[in-house]
C-alpha cells in the first residue's frame, strides 16, 4: 500500500530557487508520472525587482511548466528564516500534509543565508515530522520521508549524484524565463546579479555537470547519507 500522497516535495526559500537548482529534473520526473509539490518559504518581498503579486504569478507559470501538481507558500519573512520552533512546525505540517517520499532543499552552503537556513529548517522538519508526539497546527499523522537531498542555487559544489536533464533543458529555461521580474530589468528596476546573464550561468553549470557523465545537460545534487545501489551498478541511474 502506498502511504505517500506525492513523490517529491521540493522546498525553496524564494520562488525561483527550485527552478534554478532542479527545474529540469522536476520536469523530467513529472513527465514520468511522478507527483511533485513545491513549497516556497517566503514571498520574496525584499527582492530588488518585482513585487509579491507578480512573483506569485510567475511562480504559478513556472510550476505549470515543470508539471507540479501544487505550489504553496508559507509566507515566512524574507531574510527571517531563522531556526525557530514555529518555523520548524510549519514546515513539518507541510511534510505531513503531502507525505512525500523524497524531499529536496537548497545546498546548505549557498552564499545567500536564506538558502542555507532553508535547508537547516527543512532538515529539522524532515526529522520532526516523523515523531508521533511532535505537534503541528494540522491534524495530519506523522510522516517520515525516505530521503532528503540538496540542490544547488548559486554555488558549484561537487555533486554526489547527477540527473540527466538533456531532454528538459528547454523546459528549465522556460521555467526560469517565467520570472521576468527577476532575470530581466523591468521598467524602473535595477541591475542585480540575476539580471547579468544568470540563466546562461545556470545552464553552463548544467552543461558542465553533463560533461562529467557524458550527457548534454545534468543537474547536480548532494545527499545527506550514502545512496544505496542494488542493480544500477553500471550507471543506469537511481
Automatic annotation (TrEMBL):
InterPro entries: Bacillithiol_biosynth_BshB1, GlcNAc_PI_deacetylase-related, LmbE-like_dom_sf. SUPFAM superfamilies: LmbE-like. One of its GO terms (molecular function) is deacetylase activity. GO terms for biological process: bacillithiol biosynthetic process. Coiled coil: none annotated. Its cofactor is Zn(2+). PANTHER family: N-ACETYL-ALPHA-D-GLUCOSAMINYL L-MALATE DEACETYLASE 1, N-ACETYLGLUCOSAMINYL-PHOSPHATIDYLINOSITOL DE-N-ACETYLASE-RELATED. This is Bacillithiol biosynthesis deacetylase BshB1. It comes from Lederbergia citrisecunda.
Amino acid at each position: 500500500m502506498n502511504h505517500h500522497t506525492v513523490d517529491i516535495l521540493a522546498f525553496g526559500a524564494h520562488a525561483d530557487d527550485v527552478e534554478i537548482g532542479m527545474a529540469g529534473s522536476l520536469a523530467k520526473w513529472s513527465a514520468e508520472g511522478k507527483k511533485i509539490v513545491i513549497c516556497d518559504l517566503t514571498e520574496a518581498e525584499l527582492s530588488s525587482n518585482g513585487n509579491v503579486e507578480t512573483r506569485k504569478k510567475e511562480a504559478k507559470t513556472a510550476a505549470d511548466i515543470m508539471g507540479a501538481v501544487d505550489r504553496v507558500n508559507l509566507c515566512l519573512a524574507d531574510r527571517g528564516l531563522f531556526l525557530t520552533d514555529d518555523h520548524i512546525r510549519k514546515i513539518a505540517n507541510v511534510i505531513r500534509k503531502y507525505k512525500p517520499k523524497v524531499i529536496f532543499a537548497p545546498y546548505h552552503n549557498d552564499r545567500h543565508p536564506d538558502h542555507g537556513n532553508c535547508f537547516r529548517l527543512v532538515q529539522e522538519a524532515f526529522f520532526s515530522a516523523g515523531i508521533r508526539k511532535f505537534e503541528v497546527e494540522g491534524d495530519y499523522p506523522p510522516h517520515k520521508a525516505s530521503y532528503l537531498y540538496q540542490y544547488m542555487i548559486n554555488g558549484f559544489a561537487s555533486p554526489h549524484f547527477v540527473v540527466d536533464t538533456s531532454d528538459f533543458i528547454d523546459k528549465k529555461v522556460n521555467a526560469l524565463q517565467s520570472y521576468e521580474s527577476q532575470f530581466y530589468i523591468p521598467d524602473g528596476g535595477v541591475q542585480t546579479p540575476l539580471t547579468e546573464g544568470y540563466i546562461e550561468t545556470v545552464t553552463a553549470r548544467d552543461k558542465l555537470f553533463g560533461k562529467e557523465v557524458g550527457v548534454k545537460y545534468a543537474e547536480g545534487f548532494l545527499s545527506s547519507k550514502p545512496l544505496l545501489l542494488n542493480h544500477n551498478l553500471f550507471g543506469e541511474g537511481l
